[in-house]
C-alpha cells in the first residue's frame, strides 16, 4: 500500500495513468492526471483525467457513455506512474476500438 | 498496423512505453524511449529505454539479467504512447517485485 503523498507529478503537475481492463487484462489507454483528476478518480471511482489539449478535467465517457468503473489505483515504485484497474463500459478508444492499441502494431 | 513515422515524441524527444507481460498479462512498468531506444528495441527485440536520470540508453536487465524479450510493439491511436508485449525474465522491478506496481495500491 502507499498514499497520495507519494505521487510525484512532473513539471506540468501531471502524472501518466495507465488503464487496464479487469476483465480482459488488456491495456486500454494511457492518459494524464493532475492532482484534481487523481482525487476525483479516487473519490468518484470513475476514471477521470486531465485533457492537455482542452486544458480541463475530463471524465472518461462523459459524452460517449464509455465510462470506467475504477476498482484499484496503484502507484509505481518511483511514484511517477499510475495504474488503474477498471471495468470499462464499451470500447475504450474514441475510434471505437476496444483499446487505443488495437491493431496498432509497429511493423 | 502502423509505422515508426507516426510516433509523436514530446518536447524532450521522448515517448512513454508501457511493458506488459505476455504470460501473466500484468503491466510491469512504464519507462521512456527516445527514437534511438525505440529503434534499438525493434531491431534487437530487447526492451531498451532512455534513462532520464542517467541521460543514457538503458537496456532493461543489462546489469540484473532481468531482460525483456519483446514480442510486439504497438503505438496508441494518437501516436504518443508505446505498448510492449514482453517475455520478462525475472522480476521486472528493481526492488525485486514482480512488477513496479505490485503491492502499491493507493489507500
TrEMBL record, chains A, B:
Name the positions where Zn(2+) binds: 77, 93, 100
Q: Which domain of life is it from?
A: Bacteria
- Listed Pfam families: PRA-CH
Per its UniProt record, the required cofactor names are: Zn(2+); Mg(2+)
**Which InterPro entries does the record match to this protein?**
PRA-CH, PRib_AMP_CycHydrolase_dom, PRib_AMP_CycHydrolase_sf
Name of protein: Phosphoribosyl-AMP cyclohydrolase
**EC number assigned by the record:** 3.5.4.19
**GO-annotated cellular components:** cytoplasm
Q: Where is the Phosphoribosyl-AMP cyclohydrolase domain?
A: 29-102
Kindly state a single biological-process term from the GO annotations of this entry.
L-histidine biosynthetic process
**Main site of residence?**
cytoplasm
Q: How is the cofactor bound?
A: Binds 1 zinc ion per subunit.
Task: Write out the similarity annotation.
Answer: In the C-terminal section; belongs to the PRA-PH family. Belongs to the PRA-CH family.
Chain's role: Catalyzes the hydrolysis of the adenine ring of phosphoribosyl-AMP.
Q: How does it assemble?
A: Homodimer.
Q: From what organism does this protein derive?
A: Nesterenkonia salmonea
Per its record, the protein catalyses: 1-(5-phospho-beta-D-ribosyl)-ATP + H2O = 1-(5-phospho-beta-D-ribosyl)-5'-AMP + diphosphate + H(+); 1-(5-phospho-beta-D-ribosyl)-5'-AMP + H2O = 1-(5-phospho-beta-D-ribosyl)-5-[(5-phospho-beta-D-ribosylamino)methylideneamino]imidazole-4-carboxamide
- Tell me which residues bind Mg(2+): 76, 78, 80
One GO MF term attached to the UniProt entry? phosphoribosyl-ATP diphosphatase activity
Indicate where this protein resides in the cell: Cytoplasm
Q: Which UniProt keywords apply?
A: Amino-acid biosynthesis, Cytoplasm, Histidine biosynthesis, Hydrolase, Magnesium, Metal-binding, Zinc
Q: What pathway is this protein a component of?
A: Amino-acid biosynthesis; L-histidine biosynthesis; L-histidine from 5-phospho-alpha-D-ribose 1-diphosphate: step 2/9; Amino-acid biosynthesis; L-histidine biosynthesis; L-histidine from 5-phospho-alpha-D-ribose 1-diphosphate: step 3/9
Q: Which HAMAP family match?
A: HisI
